[in-house]
Every structure is written in C-alpha cells, then in structure tokens.
Amino acid sequence: MGNLVVRPMTSAEFEAFRSRLVREYAAEHVRAGNWTADEAEARSAEQTAELLPQGVETPGMLLLMAETAGGEPVGHLWVALERRRGFPGAWIYAIEIAPDQRGKGYGRALLLAAEQATARRGVGTIGLNVFGPNTAARNLYESAGYEIASLQMHKELPQPD
Question: Residue 20 in 3-state DSSP?
Fold first, then answer.
C-alpha cells in the first residue's frame, strides 16, 4: 500500500456521499429485515438529514476522504465525535473503500486515521455497527481491536398456510 492521504470531505463530495449513503443504508436495513423496501429510502434519508443537518459543517461530525498520494480517491469515513444515544464516545456511521481498491490496506489505514483524529479531539472510545453478513468488515474491525458490545439476532419464521 502506498501512502494514504486523509483529508476533510468537501461540500461537493458530501452531496455524492449522502446520495450513496442513503441508498446503501436503506438497502442494508432491508437485507437485515429491519425495514420494508417501501419505507427504507425515506427512513434512511430522514435519519441522515437528522444526523447531518449542515452537511460537512455539522458540528461534532468528522467527514473524511481518503486518497492515494497521487490524488486518486479510494474511500471515505463518517464519525460522530459524540453519539447521541446509547454509547459513551465517538461513533463511526460509515466507512467505505472503493471496490477496486479493497484488499490494499486502505480500510485499515483510514480506520486508524479516524481513530487518531478522534483521540486528538479528546474522545477516549469509538464504536460502530456492522451488519452480520458483512464478514470482510467484521474481520477488519476485530483485527483492529474492536470487540462485540452488543449482538442482535433474528430468525425468519415459517408462516402457516
């Protein structure tokens, strides 16, 4: 892996990020069985707007972009310095490395950069959620020292005729 440059997200980058985030977060909740397909996009957009009302300028939020030393974008990360409900510390809401850039160590480097930026702001704990089927992400987080704090499980029940 070459050097990774991590910098604040621009407003233009945020617009593309928000659009993709709403779509992908909705799809994850549908796959996990939390939301129906009919309601997912609206719920996702509502939650995103609630958490990021001022985009990249939202106080208490870090929105970071990762790129190669040559300026090629490889990923992004969103971390709240203080989670509003249920967790005493920072919270990673989103981290993504472009599919063609995965497996090169960029995810680990971006995660470390976010942890360091968070610690510099005086926050001593950082958490995140990962959907169960996302084994690549789970492996990354576990190898980076993250531990399970809570585990939700569900089972599809056969419906009577």
Answer: helix
